[in-house]
Amino acid sequence: MGEVVGQDRAVQALSFGIGIRRPGYNLFAIGPAGVGKETLLRQFLRDRAGQQKVPTDWCYVHDFADPDHPRSLELPAGMGVRL
Prior knowledge:
Radius of gyration: 18 Å
Order of helices and strands: HHEE
Number of helices: 2
Largest sheet: 2 strands, antiparallel
C-alpha cells in the first residue's frame, strides 16, 4: 500500500476486519470529516483486491415455475454482464 503516515492502527484494524470471512461481519469507519477515512479505505481495499482472485459472478433470474423464488446462477467472472 502507498505511504500512509500515522495510521498504523487503522491499517491493522482494516487488515484484521477484512480477514474475517464470515457472514454478519462488517467494517465501520468513524471520525471527523476531512481526515482521510474514505481515501485510506479506498486505497487499502483497492490494494488488497488486486492481490485476490477475481470472484465469480452471481446472477439472479426469474423462475417461471416458482415466480416468488428467483434462481441463482454462478458464472465465471465477467460473464454475468453478458447474460
